[in-house]
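Case study 2.
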Amino acid sequence: MYSERVLLSGDALWRSEDSAGGAVVPADGCVDLILRDGRVEVAGPSTRWLATGPDGAAGSFGFRMQPGRARLLLGLDLAAIADKLVPLDDVTYRRTAAQLREAMIPLEAGPAPIGTLAAFSAQLAEASRWSDAVRRAAFEATPARDVAATLSGSERSFRRRMLATFGYGYATLVRLDRAHRARSSLRSGSSIADVAASAGYADQPHLSREFRRLVGSSPAQFAASAA
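Prediction:
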């Protein structure tokens, strides 16, 4: 059983219970802190679909940060952990790791205050104006050169900052956002042809290729599972 709570900042807390693992999770470009059996790991920004691991004895608990925010909390270039699952202690300062673990551990004991995690999330949202502006541009499919000129001065510095802040390039962010919109449209019952056109894919084969890489299924399979 899976449930999640979206915070005011757009980040989310989630819980998974009684899962043996193997469930397919679409790429979303986010970074998650994951608590299982007292251990906290970092799931780096995902740029392809992945399969979940089995839940711990009390379940699995996560703090999901919107794309482009986690670097401010962890203090490392996110390209180093893209599509990886690594121990929290291996990727951030000892003091930061201790603070995050202290905030996460109570979730394993049952209903617990989320004030500390919500505060972390609010701080990240306030400090993430650059990355949020990039995400808005990606939603509108603004060309990278135009975004770079507006937000970073040069395309080279924009590429470097994207890799450090998001863990992947701007073109990948556009693809992730487009796939997210396509999934939402398929869930609502739109036809595959309509989704391909409205989400900005060149044609249905393009949509299918992207879905198999990012979502782990064909558009038809995804639509059937969401029905």
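The radius of gyration is 18 Å.
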